[in-house]
Every structure is written in structure tokens, then in C-alpha cells.
Amino acid sequence: MNIDTGITSEVFTIKSQIRLLDIFNEIINKKSQIVYEYLKSLNLDNNVKIIVIGTYFTGLGIVKKLSEKYNNIILVDIYPHLEQLLYTKIGGELKNNIKFSSDLNLIYNGDVVIDTTGFGGINVEQSSKFNVNTFIIEDPIAENNDILLKHKNNILNRINVVNSQNKAIIKTKGINTKTSGTMSLTMRILTNALDNCLKKEGVLYSACEMGFFEEIIFKEKNIDKFIELTNMPAIKVSTIKPFNCNEIINRELDKITSKMILNET
């Protein structure tokens, strides 16, 4: 635990050893691990052609995890600059080379297709053209606690029109977020951690790195700036009685679960 004195010697500033990067990667790993285990259970050849649609951030973690075993992976994303994320520590490390493309025509060239595009991504008409061995889609909804988002969610319509013998849905939830995106989950972890820190006796206030990261990634297109911010301590606390704030973050992370739901249609 990182401890400094505050304005006076009687007040301390404690900083988590856990960085934003660590929170991102823990969430991403929960998702990518279940995809890896599901594909492994299908006994697919290591050279099976895998297409992952969408980078930010589930797709990024999935291709990195699958690169441990599979040799023919293409990551397709309409934002070319997101290729840079492949060579960062977000989502883990690449074990084998993968291909990156912004050509959406390539999404139909795989034996396995993994759609992580969520709201506003691949539509029903595009999904109806898939004729693949395995199709996996990420559910962008977490807890079904928002009527508008629930009605907006069309993943069942998308998966139902796909021609595939193996269909599955990635379902991630656990901390009462509306959506299952890595950024949504991270922001809730941070706000919950801040609230729990404030409940401790002797705490003056707590703060965290909570910039609007999507703007940095998609508007500024500044991946280097984003990566620099992810290396910051996740939370900082001003207190007269130091404590381990890593434990508070880890308790929130432990609540998050990710599983595969098989679709029989």
C-alpha cells in the first residue's frame, strides 16, 4: 500500500496499488476466459478461422486469450486506430500474431464468429448472413434494470437468425450496472469503492481517476494518453487512519461473474 502524508503530518493519503489497468484486465479476463473454455470444449482445430467483431474491450481480450491456442484469428473493427490496443497491456498479452482489419466484408469469412459490438453494432440483417460452425455474441445488458436499454437490446433477434450448430451468449453482471461493458463495470467498481471508503472512520474524502475515457479513445483517438491514465492508482483516500484500499476494490471485482449461455435455436 502506498502511503504519503497529507497537508499535515496527522493526515495521510493512501493510494491503491491496483491501477485502472488492473481493473480493466480483471473484468476482461473473466469474459475472455469463458470464451476460451467454451471453444476448447468444442474440440475445434487450432487452425480454425476465428473472426472477432469489435475491439473495445471484450473483443480485444478475447483475441489475446485465444491467441494462446488458435493460429488463425482476425479482429475486425470499423475504427482502424484501435489496432494500437493490440500492442498494449489492455486485455493481456498477444501470444501469437493476429490480423486486424476494418473491412466488414471479412466478418463472413470465419468458421467461428464472435460478435462483441453490442448496441448499434452488427444488425439483424447482417447477422442473417452468417453460416458458421460457432457463433458467440456478447449481451450488452447486465442486470435488466433499465426498460429502455432492455427494449433496445436485439441480441436474441441477431443470434436467432444465424445459421450455426453452436450458439452462445456471453453474460456478465454482478454489481447492479445497467450494461455489461468493461468501462461500465469499472466505473461502478470505482464509485462503489469510493462510497465504501467514505464509510470508514477517519476518512476525510476519497477520489479516483474517472475521466471520460471513451472521448479520449474515440474522439481524440489518443491511445497513448489513455494508456498513461490507466497506469494511475485506481483510488486515493485522505484519512487519519490508513487502511488497505486494495481490499475494497477486490471485493467489488469478486462480485462480477461472466458465463456462457447456450442458445439452442
UniProtKB/TrEMBL annotation:
Cross-referenced InterPro entries: HcgC
UniProt cross-references to Pfam families, sorted A to Z: HcgC (PF06690)
The organism's place on the tree of life at top rank: Archaea
Name of the molecule in the record: Hmd co-occurring protein HcgC
